[in-house]
Write a structure and sequence with these properties.
170 residues, alpha/beta, Nucleotidyltransferase, domain 5, 5 strands
Length: 170
């Protein structure tokens, strides 16, 4: 059984867009559940959490990746503690819109964490890390501090983009 975004209703007058897909994901949440945004890298997973109204994304933490089962257990703990009902996973699409090996790795990661039992959707994360890095440089953050924050800030950037698009699609 797959937990990806459910398909739009048959004969739905609303064309499928990334925003409507995330809106459907949100519509499937139970009361008092939140979305967890993931920026999946090869060595870390940046995390961000939505508020209960799915309006605002807040950086949460960065998980240092080790073994898959440990990554899943770290995510499971956060999902339970933070009342998470669905995931928004950043998809590293190339600037020309194509999907390369990083996208394949991210999609495989999503399949690997399906034992969490949560529905998930993908969100184009193009330029997310560059955008938050630029903001942190403009804020005069040291290189060390930027390194500590960039992954969870990128996750918040990704999740906020998805929340904003979903709100416009509703």
């Amino acid at each position: 059984m797959t937990h990806r975004n459910p398909e739009p209703p048959e004969g739905s007058p609303i064309p499928e867009t990334p925003g409507t897909a995330i809106a459907r994901l949100i519509a499937g949440l139970k009361p008092r559940q939140r979305l967890l945004g993931l920026d999946v890298g090869s060595t870390t997973i940046g995390l961000a959490i939505s508020d209960f109204s799915q309006a605002i994304a807040t950086p949460l933490e960065t998980i240092a990746r080790t073994k898959l089962m440990k990554d899943i257990e770290a995510l499971r703990k956060i999902v339970q503690e933070r009342e998470v009902g669905a995931l928004v996973i950043g998809l590293p699409v190339s600037m020309d819109g194509t999907e390369g090996t990083r996208c394949q790795s991210t999609r495989q990661f999503a399949r690997n964490i399906e034992p969490l039992g949560l529905p998930y959707g993908f969100w184009d994360e193009r330029l997310s890390t560059a955008a938050v890095t630029r903001l942190m440089i403009d804020a005069d953050m040291t290189r060390k501090r930027r390194g500590e924050l960039v992954d969870k800030m990128a996750a918040a950037y990704i999740l906020q983009g998805a929340l904003d698009a979903a709100r416009q699609a509703r």
